[in-house]
Amino acid sequence: MAESNEMTINLVVLGRTQTGKSAAGNSLLGSSDFESRRSPSSVTTRCSLGRSCRISGIIRRNGSELALRVRVLDTPSYPHSSLSKERVRDAVRSALAHHFGEEGLHLALLVLRADLPLCADERDHTVQFIQELLGPTWKDFTAVLLTHTDKAEEAAFTEEAYLHSASSTMVSLLSSVQHKYIFLDNQKSIIKEERATVLRKLLNFIRQNNYQVLLLKNSKE
């Protein structure tokens, strides 16, 4: 929390190469802070913090409207085309402690492509990586952000039909994070109303977690 009439939420985006992490971060911020493009190699090589302007019309408390500020930490992918797991993990851990060490992290957003199946090995490696970053309570502070939903829509999948047809691995992952998931088409510029809807869903996840934050220390295992 910042001023009494303003709320700040701290988010980090995590995921594999070309899942749309940086584009998702830009969508949440309503900006183009993070470089995002198609590439045969990993684009993001360092952590970067983006900040939104004051956003109105999203949240109210005690009958009064609060201004919302969003801070998003963009991170290198894991696996990465040129960085080892240890370098990615240590860089993300250090950036989390540096940027969110005092205020804490509200949510880690695990970015997955809705148009690609999630395999067990990928799930296991990703979950292990997040556990190493966030610790044993990672499930309480993680939500899944499903990107490239335009491809699923082209295949005539509604959100309900997609979840009904999803692999057991995906269903298990969504269940483990208490069904905190959001569909996001970040291949096109997100419009103001869509952004507001996504932010309200994120705020609802944070509210369900009693506005708890995860305090992070910069320590190596």
From TrEMBL:
Region of interest: Disordered: 21-41
**The keyword Ligase belongs to this UniProt entry's keyword annotation:** no
Stretches of Polar residues bias are at 21-30
| Matches recorded under PANTHER family | GTPASE IMAP FAMILY MEMBER GIMD1, GTPASE, IMAP FAMILY MEMBER-RELATED
List each copy of the AIG1-type G domain by range: 6-221
Similarity comment: family membership: Belongs to the TRAFAC class TrmE-Era-EngA-EngB-Septin-like GTPase superfamily. AIG1/Toc34/Toc159-like paraseptin GTPase family. IAN subfamily.
Which is a Pfam family this sequence falls into?
Answer: AIG1
List the protein's name.
GTPase IMAP family member GIMD1
User: What GO terms are given for molecular function?
Assistant: GTP binding
Q: Which residues form the signal peptide?
A: none
Kindly give the InterPro entries that the UniProt entry links to this protein. G_AIG1 (IPR006703), GIMA/IAN/Toc (IPR045058), P-loop_NTPase (IPR027417)
Q: Which keywords does this Swiss-Prot/TrEMBL entry list? A: GTP-binding, Nucleotide-binding
